[in-house]
Amino acid sequence: MASNASSTPTPNGTLNSAIPEGPLPGKWTQYKAKAKLINPANKRKYSVIVVGSGLAGGAAAATLSELGYQVKCFCYQDSPRRAHSIAAQGGINGAKNYQNDGDSVWRLFYDTIKGGDFRAREANVHRLAEISLQIIDQCVAQGVPFAREYGGALANRSFGGAQVSRTFYARGQTGQQLLIGCYQALEKEIAKGGVKMHTRTEMLDLVVVDGHAKGIVVRDLTTGEITSHAADAVILATGGYGNVFFLSTNAMGCNVTAALRANKRGAYMANPCFTQIHPTCIPVSGDYQSKLTLMSESLRNDGRIWVPKSKEDAAKIRSGTMMAKDIPEEGRDFFLERKYPSFGNLAPRDISSRSAKEVCDEGRGVAKTGLGVFLDFSDAINRLGKEAIKARYGNLFQMYEKIAGEDPYETPMKIYPAVHYTMGGLWVDYNLMSNIAGLHVLGEANFSDHGANRLGASALMQGLADGYFVIPTTLPNYLASQKPGTVTTSAPEFKQIEAEVKERIDQLMNVKGTKTVDSFHRELGMLVWDKCGMARSEAGLKEALAKIPQIREDFWKNVRIPGSPDGTNMELEKAWRVADFIDFAEIMCHDALAREESCGGHFREEYQFTAEDEAVKSGYTNPGEAMRRDDEFAYVSAWEFKGPGVPPVLHKEPLVYEAVELSVRSYK
Amino acid sequence: MNLTLKVWRQSGPNATGRIETYEAKEIPSEASFLEMLDIVNTGIIKEGGDPIHFDHDCREGICGSCSLAINGVPHSKESGITTCQVHMRKFREGETIWIEPFRARAFPVIKDLMVDRSAFDRIIAAGGYIDVRTGSAPEANSIPIGKEDADEAFDAATCIGCGACVAACKNASAMLFVGAKAAHLNILPQGHPEKDKRVLALVRQMDAEGFGNCTNHYECEAVCPKEISADVISKLNRDYAAAIVREAVAE
Amino acid sequence: MIKKPQMNALGKTLLLFWNSSIGKKLVVAITGLMLVGFLLGHMTGNLLIFQGREDLNDYAEFLHHMLHGWGIWIARLGILGAFFLHIVATVSLVQQNRASRDSRYACDTTVQAPVSSRIMIWTGLTVIAFVVFHIFHFTVRLDPDLAAMKDPGNPERHDVYGMVIAGFQNPLVVIFYILAISFLCSHLSHGIGSIFQTLGLRTEKTRVAIRNLSVAISVLLWVGFLSIPILVVTGGLKDKTDSASHSSERPGPSALAEN
C-alpha cells in the first residue's frame, strides 16, 4: 500500500496521519497521481451520507453527486441555504497574487501555519494553500459576485495576519455569496436526482458496523420520526462547537451533537480547547440575551479602544451618571496603544481580546454588565470628517445603532470579545478520514488546518477546499476498499442505535422537571466562558471539571420539555443539543487542562512571559504574552471517549515541522 | 416594558389555527424581538404550556430563517431589516403587537409561526444556478466583468430567501425572489449561455408552486430586508418575453 | 410532414405562454397599451368639440368613411378584442392570485401600495359597466332623440356635436360620467406604470419618469374627457342652433364608433 493510501483505522492504537511521502510542496500532487479511482460506471453504486449543508457539506454533496455517487444530504435548517457559513463577513483567501505584491502558495501556507501558532499539520495546510487558487476560479464560474475593479478584474483586500492583499470579498457578505453559489450547485444536483436532500432533519447518532461508519440515525424535526440511513461512507460537515459557551456569534441551532456522537462511537476529538475569541462584538446587555453579534474587525483601523483610568469613572459610566465625553483625554486608558505601541489598536485577535478582559476584570469596564470597552471614533471623525467615516463604515455604524440603540457618531461604541470560531474538532488524517474507517469530517467540524488560531478569511477557504476538492479526491481511497451497498439499515447495529436514540428521547421527555433547557445552557456557557474562555488556569479548569457533572446531574433531574416528541418540538431539539454540550464541555476542559502551555486561542495563565524571561529583557516581547512550549506540546491532542463519567483518554499525534521553523510571535 | 401579544397558534400543519393573547411582562427595551419571544416562551414553559414555535437561526439578519408578520408587516414596519434585527425599543409601553406567520398557499404552516418555504428551494433547483462542474472552471480573471454589472448582479444576489416578499404581496407572488435570482445570474457573463432556459424554468416552477403573480404594488420591495428593487421583476418580465419568443422561433 | 410538428410546437409555446403568470401579464400589458392609445386618440377627437360643430362632425364623418367604411370596423374589432382579452386575462389572474393567498392576516396593513393599485379590479369593473352604458348612449344611441339629430349645415350626416350637448343635459348622466372617468383614470395611474413594468422597461433610470408619465397621462385624460360634460352641464358649451335646426325625419348614417 502506498503511503498516501487511506490510513489504517486504529481505534485503540497510535494515530496514523497518512501524510504522503516526499517534499512538502509536492505531496498533494503525488497523492493525486497515486490515489485510487473508482470506475465511472461503478460510482453510482456507491452511496454517501453528508451531514451538514454549509460550505463544506454543501460543496461535498454537490461535487460527489456530479461525480456520480448517490448522495444523501441532511441539515437541521429548513433549507441548505441557511447553514451558518452564510454569516461570514470578511472574505476568502486565495494565493492568486493578482496584486503582484509577492504572494504565493508558499506564503499563504506559511502565514496560516504561523497564524495558527504552529499547531497545525504542515501537509494539510500546504494543500489548502494550493487549492485556494481553484476555489476562486470555481466560485467565479458559479456566479459569485466578488468585488471588482473598474477594469473588470477581481479586487482584493488585506486582512489580519498577512502582509499581502489576497482576500477576495463580496461586500461584507462573502460567506453568504459563497454559500449561495454552493447551495445552487447543490440544488442543481438535487433536481438531477443525484442528491436526496433531507431538510429539517437532525443527525442524532452515528452507526458503526464492524469498525466502519455506515450510517446515521436522524430525527425528522417536523414529524418527530426517528429513522436510519445507511451508506458506504459518512461525511460530517456539521460546523463548530462555539455554542458550548451559550453566547457566541454562532447561529442558535449550531451544535456539537454530530461530532460528539461520533466521538462516543470511537472517533477522536482533537484540540477541543482551541477556540477563537473575536475582540469586536457588541457586548452582552442582559441575561435574556440569546446571541452575540460580530462587528467587523476593520473598525479597529480607525477606532481607538479605551476604558477610563479610574474605577470610579467607569462605575459612573455604567450607572449612566457620566458619559464617555465627560472623561478628559488624561482620564482615558488607551490600553492597546499603551501596551503594544507599534501595533496599537490593530494587535491580533487573541491579544486584543485578552487585554479587554483584563481591564474589565480590574473593574474598569464600561458596559452596564461591566464587560465592555469603548471603541471610539471621535478622533477619526475630527481628523477625516464624519462623511469619510460614514463612507468607510456606514453600514456597520447603522447595524450597531439598530442593535445597541446608540449613535456611534455621537458616543463611542462599546465592544467586548465573543466566541466565534472553533479550531478544534474531530481528528482526521490527510484523507480527512477520522480514526473510524469511512467517517470523514470536513470544514470547521474537523481540526486540521488552523492549529491553535485561525487567520481571518481562512474558514471559508477551508470549508470549500475540503468540500469541492479534497474529499472528491480522497474519498475513493476509502470506497475502493468497500463493496458498495453491503450494509443496509436492516443490520442489527441500526436497530440497536435507533432504540438507544428513542430511549434517550423518552428519558428527556420524562424528566418533567421545572427548569428550562436554556437555563442549563446558560449556566454551562457561563461556567466554560469563565474557566475555559479567554484565559484558563489549572485551578479554574479543575473547578469547571468538578461543576460540569453537577450541571449534568441537575439537567437530567430537573429539565422541563413540554409537548410531545411526535411533531415539531423545539425544546426537545435544544435539550438534546444541550445534553451533548454538557458532555462536550468536559472534554474541552480536559484538553485545556492537559495542554500546559499558551498558544493561539488557548491562554493558560501559568504560561506567560514574565519580566524575568530573556525574551522580555531583550525587548522582544512583553510580560503577559503567551508562552508556547514546543518541546513538550507540539502535538495534536486527540481524545478518546471512555464511557459516561469516565475521563477521556489522550492520544497524541506529534507535529513534525519539516518546512518551517518554529518561532515566537511578537507584535510589540 | 409590558406588552400585549396577539399570536397565531396552530398545533400542526392540519390543525386549525387561532389568535391567542399573551401578556409580555417586564421586557427589557434592549432586547430583540425574538428575545422578547424567548422570554414569553420561558414563562409559557414554566406554566406548563407549549412554547410559541418560530423559525430563527443566525439572529443577525443573514440566514433568512426568521419570518413573522409583525402587526401585519413581514419583518415589521422598519425597513431593511429582518425580524431578528427588530428591537423592542421600537415599540411603545403597553402596545398590542400582532404576530402572525407568513401567509401564502405556497408556504403552508408547520406549527404556530413556522412555515414551509421549501417551494423556494424547488424554484432554485429548477434553474437558479450556473451549471458548472467542480473543477471545470476557467481562470477567475479570464472573464472581466464591469464594476457596474458586478454591482447590479450583487444587489440582486443579496436575497436571503426569507419569503417576506411573498408574505407581503396581496397575491403571494414570488416575483421578487425569482426576479432577484434571474437578475443575479443573467447579468453576469457566466450566466448568459443558460439565460433563456433558466428564466423559463424558474417562472414555470414558480407558477407550479402556486405563487400568485405580480400586480406591481411593490409591497415586496418595501419589506425586503435586503431592499432589493422591484426593477428585478421588470427585468424578469423582459427576459421571459425574450426567452419565450426565442423558444417559439427555435421550435 | 415537417410542418405539422412545427405548428404543434408553436401551439405548445403559445399555450405555455398563456398559462404562465408572466404570459398573461404580458397580454394584459399589451392590450392595456392599445387601450391607452385608443383613449388618447378618442380624447383628442372629442376635444374637436371646442373647434365647433363642423370640425367635430367632419372628423366623425372621416372616421366612418376611412378605408371605404372598413376602417372603423377594423378599429372597433381591434379595440373590443383588446378590451376582451384584457378582461379575460385579468379575471383569470385575479382568480389565481386569490387562490395563492388563501388566508388573510388578522392584522392586515399596507406598506406602500397606493390606493389606485389596490382597487384595480373594482375600477376595472366599473369601467366595463361604463363602456356598456357609453356605447348604448352615444354609439348605438338607444335614445331616439339623440339618434335622429342631423347636422344643420349638412343634413346628410349625423350631428355628433348636437348629440353630445344634448346627451349631457341630464345631470345624473354627467355624474356617472365623472365617476366613471375618475375610476378609469385611477385605473390608468397604476395601469400605465404597470405596462412598463410588465414589458420590462422599468429600470432604476426610468422609474421616476414612468411614474410621472402615468400620472400625467391619467390627469390629461381626466381633464380632457371630463371638460366636455362639465362644461356642458355648467353651460360653458351650448348648442346655439338647438331644436331649430334639427330635422328628425331621415335616419342617420351608421353609428359613430368614436363616441
Provide an overview of this structure.
The complex is a heterotrimer of chains A (668), B (251) and C (259). With 668 residues, chain A is of the alpha+beta class. Chain A is built from 19 helices and 20 strands. Chain A folds into three domains: 298 residues, FAD/NAD(P)-binding domain; 142 residues, Flavocytochrome C3, Chain A, domain 1; 142 residues, Up-down Bundle (Methane Monooxygenase Hydroxylase, Chain G, domain 1), CATH 1.20.58. Chain A is 37% helix and 14% strand. In chain A, the strands form five sheets. Chain A has a five-stranded parallel sheet. Chain A has a five-stranded antiparallel sheet with strand order 12-16-15-13-14. In chain A, helix 3 runs parallel beside helix 13. Chain B has 251 residues and is α+β, with helices and mostly antiparallel strands. Chain B has a five-stranded mixed sheet. In chain B, strands 6-7 form a two-stranded antiparallel sheet. Chain C has 259 residues and is mostly helical. Chain C has a single domain, classed as Fumarate reductase/succinate dehydrogenase, transmembrane subunit (3 helical TM bundles of succinate and fumarate reductases, Up-down Bundle), CATH 1.20.1300. A two-stranded antiparallel ribbon of chain C has the order 1-2. The relative contact order of chain C is 0.14. At the B-C interface, helix 6, helix 7 and helix 8 of B face helix 1, helix 2, helix 4 and helix 9 of C.
Q: Which CATH top level class of the largest domain in chain A fits?
A: Alpha Beta
| Percentage of residues assigned to helices of chain A | 25-40%
Q: Kindly identify the CATH topology of the largest domain in chain B.
A: Fumarate Reductase Iron-sulfur Protein, Chain B, domain 2
Q: Beta-strand percentage of chain A? A: 5-15%
CATH topology name of the largest domain in chain A, in short, is FAD/NAD(P)-binding domain
CATH architecture of the largest domain in chain B: Orthogonal Bundle
Mean pLDDT reading of chain A: 93
Number of strands of chain A: 20
Rg measurement of chain A, Å: 24 Å
Helix and strand content put the structural class of chain A at alpha+beta
Helix content of chain B: 25-40%
**Which CATH class of the largest domain in chain B is shown?**
Mainly Alpha
Q: Give the name of the CATH superfamily of the largest domain in chain B.
A: Alpha-helical ferredoxin
- For the termini of chain A, the CA-CA separation is 49 Å
Shape of chain A: globular
Query: How many individual domains of chain B?
Result: 2
Strand content of chain B: 5-15%
CATH architecture group name of the largest domain in chain A: 3-Layer(bba) Sandwich
Biggest contact: A-B, 81 and 76 residues
